[in-house]
Amino acid sequence: MMDAGISCWDTKYYYMYPRPPQGNEDILCLFGLPNFPSYTSGHSTFSAAAATVLGYVFPAEASLFDSYAKDASESRIYSRIHWRYDCEVGVEVGNTIGDMATAVAATDGAD
Fold it and tell me: Which of 26, 29, 74 minimizes the C-alpha distance to 48?
């Protein structure tokens, strides 16, 4: 989760991309607008990383964890807090981070 946070927030402040209501005044946010950049979605990155690791630990439940991560990601689009690509890239990066974490666990005896 720490790696997901570092990756996501480093990307946010590198690109400084506006959120939907900031980029188009016709889009209204359904909740309070977070005070940090949009790209990439933290919820998407964290959820996908966690789903990947949990799917590794509990392989019979992997598809369930992935569906939960997808739901968490899409909720950010529906609430108008993120653009779709913020979430799609966040899931992709989160999955990669989860894969890296499980690969390290497999080599250091932590699995």
Answer: 74
